[in-house]
Amino acid sequence: MTQKINVRPNRPSLVMGLVVTSAFLIFGIVFMIVLAKERSWVGVGFIAFWILIILVLIGYLVYMLATRRTVADIETETDAPPSAGESAPDFDAKLRKLEALKKDGLLTDEEYQAKRAEIMKKEW
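The chain above was modelled as a monomer; its predicted structure follows.
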């Protein structure tokens, strides 16, 4: 059975990210002023790039905090029984699929019999 998991950051981690990036932004602005007074234009250019990246990160964190959207959707295989919203495939479908696999030559007689016995043991 495939299970879908939504991954989203929690509120405290987003707030902490905003605090840290805001501190980096303040550092960048102060450092840019110091470099501009010394007329170090290469340094000013680097810090301007730094500030741009920090502003993008702050915008992303604010967006995530406001919308609470998922960062990733992960699909995993599990042996857990289906949840209430899902129904297990019926025995008829399982047996027909097994028969088709045998007919196509993908299963030996021994494999077919073992799997059929396993399916038949389960509760109808």
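Residues 89-121 form one domain.
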